[in-house]
Amino acid sequence: MHKAYRVSILYFLLFALLLLATASALFAQKIGFTQADVLSYYLGNEALFIAPKSVVGVLKIILPHIFAYALFVMVVLHFLIFTKMRNKRELDFLIYASYVSIAAELFSPFFIMAGLEFFAYVKIAAFFTMSTLQLYISYLLFDSIFKA
Amino acid sequence: MRPILSGLLIFISLYIFADFFVKNATIGLSKCALNTTLFGNSEEFIDPIMQSVFLEHLHTETFFLMMILLTLSAVFMRLWAERPFSLILLNITMLSALLSLISLAMSYYVSASFVNLYVSTFFLWHIAALCMSLLSLWRLFRA
């Protein structure tokens, strides 16, 4: 790979880390990382003056994220093809795990609003899985760039 | 390939150009306007920006910036990779764009003095990215 492309990918990864940082800050600020916080955010909480979310309201929030998540994950994962990870089973695992975790993160609120409170844990776990996978993929790419 | 890439580059240039006016009209591009947006102004009864609104702004800005600059840099390096200045211009654009986002966050959370850094890096990355875009267009039509 040309040196300039490696520079572009390096900056892209730095932006990706910033995106992850702002996403985590938003999650902490708007929702919270406990089951009670997640339930309060989606189902409402009279004591905290939080109104329950509507299905259309949640759909409006996740609509741009459905495309943005998929695009972002596709771009980051396709860089792995230029590394030693190409044709490895670990790459398949990272691809499936990334897409499954973003799907769980995006769609778990609908199950919460349907009364399945267990999905509050799924929402939190999916967010952490997605973030951890993103950090791991970034590490693999950083490693590949600096060793090249 | 020329019409496809030139179309993309024209739209990227338009985005960069329009971004000046949108930012100027929303959060402001002068030190005074930015301070008012971020911290409010009691004399004019203007509330400071809410943290969640600020974070949403920063989050969407980061996403758009990373996608636009990755696309632009891929086209630019494809056309100008053999010239040493291309790598310098690429570094200036990327580094200033990254710094503009970080300095905006620092202005809100750490110190208002980072607003100056935000304004400088904001103008720098816009000018550098516009140069990359126009140079790529020039190369496309000259080749």
Tell me what you see in this structure.
The complex is a heterodimer of chains A (about 150) and B (about 140). With about 150 residues, chain A is mostly helical. Chain A has one domain (about 5-145). Chain A has five helices and no strands. The longest helix of chain A has 29 residues, at about 5-30. The termini of chain A are close together. The relative contact order of chain A is 0.14. The mean pLDDT of chain A is about 90. Chain B is mainly alpha-helical. Chain B has one domain (about 1-140). Chain B has five helices and no strands. Chain B has helices spanning about 1-25, 30-40, 50-80, 85-110, 115-140. In chain B, helix 3 (about 50-80) runs antiparallel to helix 4, helix 3 (about 50-80) packs parallel to helix 5 (about 115-140) and helix 4 (about 85-110) runs antiparallel to helix 5. Chain B starts with a helix and ends with a helix. The chains are: A mainly alpha (about 150), B mainly alpha (about 140). The interface of A and B includes residues 2, 18, 25, 71 and 72 of A.
What topology does this entry show?
The complex is a heterodimer of chains A (148) and B (143).
Chain A: H1 3-31, H2 35-43, H3 55-79, H4 89-113, H5 119-147
Helix pairs in contact in A: 1-5, 2-5, 3-4, 3-5, 4-5
Chain B: H1 2-25, H2 31-39, H3 51-80, H4 84-109, H5 114-142
Helix pairs in contact in B: 1-5, 3-4, 3-5, 4-5
Characteristic key phrases:
heterodimer; A: 148 residues; mainly alpha; 79% helix; elongated; B: 143 residues; 5 helices; 83% helix
How would you summarize what this structure contains?
The complex is a heterodimer of chains A (148) and B (143). Chain A is an all-alpha fold and 148 residues long.
Unreliable spans of chain A: none
Structural class of chain B: mainly alpha
Number of domains of chain A: 1
Percent of residues of chain B in beta strands? under 5%
Cα-based radius of gyration of chain A, to the nearest Å: 18 Å
Over the alpha carbons, how many angstroms does the gyration radius of chain B reach?
17 Å
The percent range for helix content of chain A is over 70%
